[in-house]
Amino acid sequence: MKIAISGKGGVGKTTIMGLLARQTQKSGREVLVIDADPSPHMAQALGVENIGDITPIAEMKKMLTDRSGKVEGSPFYNINPKVDDLPAQYMLEKDGVKLMVLGAIQTAEGGCACPENTVLKRLLTRLLLNPTQTVLLDMEAGVEHLGRGTIAGVDGLLIVVIPAMSSVRTGLKIRKLARESGIPRIYFVGNLVADEEDELFLADGLGERPLVCFPDSNRIRKAERAGMPITEADEAMNGVAAQLLAGLTELMQK
Ligand SMILES: Nc1ncnc2c1ncn2[C@@H]1O[C@H](COP(=O)(O)OP(=O)(O)O)[C@@H](O)[C@H]1O
Ligand SMILES: [Mg+2]
Q: Quick one: pLDDT at residue 104?
């Protein structure tokens, strides 16, 4: 399955994707995480070192360019890459979780990273997965990717919301855009949810209950500040991530 995550800036997208990646790997599936944030943080969340050694996906263009119609039989023509075939230079691995970074650079003038997004779109729509492989896409705050249809190739979108009016509003806006871009499954995930009142606020504002709700975790906060991977910091958070994985796995079969 290919799952993307969205939500207002700072609501916990990278944290939740990191936790989900680790649980997915623990369940015996192969995981490829794609960090498409222009200022990537996933490496730190997962404890991946040497992130500077990685070649950004944006430079994969040549490999993914559709050259249909040219000489038959060349391995480079019309390729639909499998995860196992992706060149290792684009990937780092930590305890069985593979990580790629998009490497989109926003220009000082605020110009868009369109070429990078095109490469990401190609990769997402063409990457062939076997049933034991999962691709998780971490994104920047905005709804940019949705607007350009970059993530049209995903099977599902998680929208992270915290119990605040602004987050709910953004969440609903993202859902609308996601529906318009044809993403087949869209689910809300609560974060920093302290009690039943928070849960009710989210359910009321969203018109549905989030798939799961993550609590506010002091251990995660401390791990992040200490530059430690957040994936081993808090058993309770890992438990919710496991529930999220179970829920997603079930819903993906429908
Ligand atoms: N459930 C949580 N409990 C405590 N801190 C959290 C939680 N979720 C996220 N954080 C912290 O909030 C900050 C923003 O989270 P992050 O996952 O980077 O958000 P985003 O990717 O949406 O911008 C980070 O410092 C992270 O450690
Ligand atoms: Mg992030």
A: 54
